[in-house]
Amino acid sequence: MVSLTIEEWHRQFSRQAAWTRGIRSRLYRQAGLWRAEAVLDVGCGTGVITDEIARRTRGRVVGLDLDPAMIRYAAGRVEGAEWVVGDAHYLPFPVETFDLALCNFLLLWTEHPVLVVKEMARVVRREGVVLATTEPDYGGRIDFPEDIALTPLMEESLRREGAHPHIGRRLKALFVEAGLEVQTGVIPSIWDDQQLRAEFEAEWSFIFKTLNNVADEAELRKYEERAWRALQAGERLIFMPIFWALGRKPGAHPL
After folding, report:
1. Torsions phi, psi for 15 (to 5 deg)
2. Whole-model pTM?
3. What residue segments make up the domains of the chain, in order of their start?
4. Which one of 43, 62, 97, 221 has the fewest CB atoms closer than 10 angstroms to its CB?
5. What topology does CATH give the domain 6-248?
6. How far apart are CA 38 and CA 48, in angstroms?
7. What's the CA gap between 46 and 29, in Å, rounded?
């Protein structure tokens, strides 16, 4: 992944979580989070979503991440959770350990997303739930005016980092391949002028740090200047489709 400090990643994870808080609340209810006895947050990062989960259930909550530094950071700021360093492709838990296994903006970054979903399905109990709350699809992003469109650069940067910029549209197929009974949906994320203004500095700071593997600073400054002019003129628009999937593990077959 791109080189950011833990604090910078935490700020970005917090921003991302804020964009989709409403849909997560609905998905948590649908997944039965409040009555879950054991919940696994796969790819928990700095614990932003783990903290949210721990506040909504009395059950056991476990956060797992491949990066020990992320786990140390999360453990230092979140109460009411257990922390494990581990690979999402090979979850270090026995079969049918959890009632709910979820991830947030994770499959985008995994080497083999289908293996991750299969592992999440393996560790949930029968009739338990696997939930991917938010996975973006950069192929569906729309920018206006069009001369500000960073999508080609974003997709190329993600591919160079080993990510899957079109993961959103693949979610349903991944869950089906993992043997789950799946429901899917899309969050039509539109950034309005108020959000664009409030997040302009933070968004462009992140862009400069994450797209420097595909563009130099001078080129990115030109994009930033055009984006600011369009925002001031009231013309700026960003549309980004973000997909979710909720899969239920089939129960035991009747005799």
Report:
1. -65, -45
2. 0.93
3. 6-248
4. 221
5. Rossmann fold (3.40.50)
6. 18
7. 23
